[in-house]
Amino acid sequence: MLGAAQPDSCDDQEIGSFIMDVTSIPHRISLPVGNTPIVQLDLNVNGVERLLGLKLEAYNPCGSLKDRVAQGLIDEVADQVHREVGIIESTSGNLGVAMAAICNQRGINFNAVVDPHASPLLIERMRRLGSVVTIIDEPDPSGGYLMNRLQYVRGQLAARPGLVWTNQYESDENPKAHSLSTAPELLRQVSGSTTVFVPVSTGGTLAGFSRFAEAKNLAWRLIGVDVAGSAALGATAGPRVLSGIGASRPSYFLNLDKVESVYVHAAEAISACMWLADCAGVDVGGSSGATVAAALRVLRSDPQLCDLVCICPDGADRYLTTIYQLDWREAHGVTSVQVAKGIELLNVRYIA
Ligand SMILES: Cc1ncc(COP(=O)(O)O)c(C=O)c1O
Fold this sequence. Notes:
Elements: H1 12-22, H2 26-29, E1 38-45, E2 48-56, H3 67-77, E3 87-90, H4 94-106, E4 110-114, H5 120-128, E5 132-135, H6 146-159, E6 164-165, H7 173-189, E7 195-199, H8 204-215, E8 221-227, E9 260-264, H9 266-280, H10 286-301, E10 307-312, H11 326-331, E11 344-351
Parallel strand pairs: 2-10, 3-4, 3-6, 4-5, 7-8, 7-10, 8-9
Antiparallel strand pairs: 1-2, 1-11
Bound molecules: pyridoxal-5'-phosphate (PLP).
The site of pyridoxal-5'-phosphate (PLP) has 17 residues, from helix 8.
């Protein structure tokens, strides 16, 4: 009978040591970062056929766009790192997991500083990889946590001589990862005059895309997507419920006067996630939902626009206990909206 009998040797202690052994294996295999696929949705919006591409960064080895950034951030500080004292970084979770995997492989201690919005699954994964995870649960005056996370990092740097901060918020390695990998990759996958929706937190992804498009003189229209309550693109900071998108302060990397932006509410981002999952069978995270909600809004308002791509930083796996749960949505005051009402999905295709 299924699940009834367990081998005698399978006691708790053995399971524990088995798990300990396994954690070091996947990161020695070193799956390649990048070359993520695009899922193309063929849509009928107000009687006009449009193409909406989703670049799925969940296909990276640690499951997000931040896999592209982690290696450069660590390599940049490698000659200052004492392996015992280690590295500290503030993260909403995705960068933390990617850095935890690399630090685990290189025998470097890693301290990830997160907040209560971080996915429990990612916190658990960082801990399994041997990282110390510090959860900052005191909101800063804006209602977000970033300023207090950074204050904690600075306090640790003062208290622990030799500790190194990779600083994803200001290190050039962050936008560089996207101008050297994500953006050139997209150019190989799409036609020349596409509109690209990029979610913003540190602004590293959007800054990298802007640099690349400028250097190559591309006819790309880049749109930064942020959420209500985020100051990343210059608006007033306030409480937010989504993880990974938005920030309590303006991006260090972007010239905000030059950024075209669209703001969405958490409810719209989540509605887009549900629509994609239910109608297209594509499971993405909240910031990806935000880009799709923004793209649908722009599509409705501009019948000429036909070729769009959304950068989708991660998948639904890390949000199964949050945005994909009705209880969580109700507890966080997320009302039910339907961003895709009246939009017909005609076809779904994969582009490698
Ligand atoms: C979930 C999520 N949303 C949005 C982004 C974009 O972030 P940034 O502006 O820091 O490049 C990322 C980056 O990887 C992410 O993981």
